[in-house]
Design a protein that fits this description.
globular; mainly alpha; 0% strand; 516 residues
Length: 516
């Protein structure tokens, strides 16, 4: 019995490590490629074209709103049958989900037609109807393929702790797309052809996932069912609305109430802030499925211990990494947009607020993961509704007077509210521990953030002139901040720091033995 338990734990650890590594590689490549193409677009087409591309991207992502949170619920519904190896129930869930997303793909077609007709008159832009319509069509192809062919297979692999399959496929197609688009831009082809190339390359993703699932899973698509196999099918709506609003509100509000140049400035800063946020998300992509398995098997002690470690690791990492980002974002943007003169990209106040908003968003991660893993959708939906209203309401209210800063304040306020609420819900209903754990963690976060704020003030506003200079500055900032962040956590979380140090030394020793 103990041997079997140890074997299960080792398998979980291996899957978590592989998922985390594959996801991190994909996110690092996404960040790297994400900087290359927008810079080329700015230099080849200008801020207006970059603005309209980012604006259309956000409008197309709104169709994810019609998912209504069913994707997250599908993933949660698969944890138990996968843990019990119940192939019939797995087939029922997959069949029900496939029906839903194929209907959603049909709605997407109607939405794209509507967007073609309305967008040219909605956005404050100088391009003709034909130019904009062709761009929307080219960019929408991969979205249709995702919902019609690939999304259910992706959810199945994530739930089964095999997310590394999709991450590897995404990494390959991402590199192919970056190379192809960079060549096309250098050849000065139309932006429509560039985006069409992206869509065609990304079609390889659902095709690859479909081949893998057919080969490795026995899914009976002819199976019948009376009762809906996806419980709480519509209770993920609030969570989903909040996520869509968080990721899409700012660009859409700027498109309607400001200018495409503002959208372009926002998109460039968001490349950095969102990229860092996604790096944290990539580190936790395997955690939700592991939490879901522990919850489904009612291994509560292991779950609580695991959650405690995840919470501290994420909070500590967020404070340090986003602290560094707050000091480095404007110097980086100054180099990244060097030579671009059709808009003012040096926006230090906006940059810091946007970084803080994304940092607070990342602090939610352990609590959101626990809510999703436990399937607590209905119980938490009011919180998400309030957060969504707060975000969009403040953004619209403040954008006319404060512009970019206004929309970032709206995002920050909603994230603070939601982080506190989800943490309190976890303490009371899921992990069931004293609220003092969360209060202590937040206090330590504030200590770290305050020290970094003071250090930023002492360092002053620094503008880089080239990437080498920026890298040298980044190394100095990272080392200084690291010393203080380690010291603070050794004071308040000495045992965890010792444990983390031990793990780092053990990994370093293993790597050294393999090398030598």
């Amino acid at each position: 019995m103990l041997g079997k338990k140890k074997e299960e734990d080792n398998l979980r650890t291996k899957k978590l490590a592989r998922n985390t590594m594959s996801s991190m590689i994909y996110q690092v490549m996404t960040i790297g490629c994400g900087f290359i193409l927008p810079r080329l677009m700015l230099s080849c087409y200008g801020s207006e074209v970059n603005g309209i591309v980012n604006s259309i991207t956000q409008f197309l992502q709104i169709v994810a709103f019609l998912d209504l949170g069913v994707g997250a619920v599908v993933q949660s519904s698969l944890y138990k049958p996968l843990a019990n190896n119940d192939t019939q129930q797995i087939s029922r869930v997959v069949k029900s989900a496939t029906r839903f997303f194929r209907n959603l793909a049909k709605i997407l077609l109607v939405y794209v037609v509507g967007l073609i007709l309305v967008y040219p008159y909605l956005a404050n832009q100088q391009f003709g109807f034909g130019y904009t319509a062709a761009l929307i069509i080219a960019m929408s192809i991969s979205s249709f393929a995702q919902y019609y062919f690939g999304i259910v297979n992706r959810l199945l692999l994530l739930a089964d702790q095999r997310g590394y399959i999709q991450y590897d496929i995404q990494t390959i197609t991402l590199i192919l797309n970056t190379i192809a688009c960079a060549v096309l831009m250098r050849w000065n082809v139309s932006i429509q052809l560039v985006k069409l190339t992206t869509s065609l390359i990304y079609l390889l993703r659902p095709i690859g996932l479909n081949c893998y699932v057919k080969k490795n899973y026995k899914i009976d698509m002819d199976i019948t069912y009376v009762d809906e196999p996806i419980k709480q099918k519509w209770n993920g709506v609030a969570q989903h609305i909040a996520a869509v609003i968080l990721d899409g509100t700012d660009s859409i509000v700027l498109t309607i109430f400001s200018t495409l140049s503002s959208v372009s400035i926002y998109s460039v800063y968001n490349l950095v802030a969102f990229g860092v946020k996604q790096l944290f998300v990539s580190m936790t992509n395997g955690i939700q499925s592991l939490m879901g398995e522990l919850w489904a098997k009612e291994e509560i002690n292991e779950l609580e211990s695991f959650f405690d470690w995840v919470e501290w690791t994420i909070h500590t990492g967020v404070v340090y990494v986003f602290g560094c980002t707050s000091a480095l974002i404007v110097p980086f943007i100054s180099v990244y947009t060097k030579g671009i003169t059709d808009a003012n990209y040096i926006q230090p106040v906006f940059g810091v607020i946007l970084v803080v908003a994304n940092a607070v968003c990342c602090l939610r991660i352990p609590y959101i993961l626990m809510i999703l893993a436990s399937g607590s959708y209905k119980q938490t939906q009011n919180n998400y509704i309030i957060a969504a209203i707060l975000n969009i309401g403040l953004s619209i209210l403040l954008v006319r007077k404060f512009g970019l800063i206004g929309v970032s304040i709206g995002t920050l306020a909603s994230m603070v509210y939601q982080t506190v609420w989800t943490a309190l819900y976890n303490e009371k209903h899921l992990i069931k521990r004293s609220i003092s754990f969360f209060i202590k963690q937040v206090f330590v976060d504030f200590c770290g953030a305050f020290v970094i704020f003071v250090l930023n003030k002492l360092l002053g506003q620094y503008i880089s002139t080239n990437y080498l200079e920026w890298c040298w500055y980044a190394v100095k900032v990272a080392l200084v901040f690291l010393v203080f962040e380690v010291a603070i956590n050794y004071v308040f979380y000495k045992e965890k720091m010792k444990k983390l140090t031990g793990k780092i030394l053990l990994v370093s020793k293993k790597i050294g033995m393999k090398v030598f």
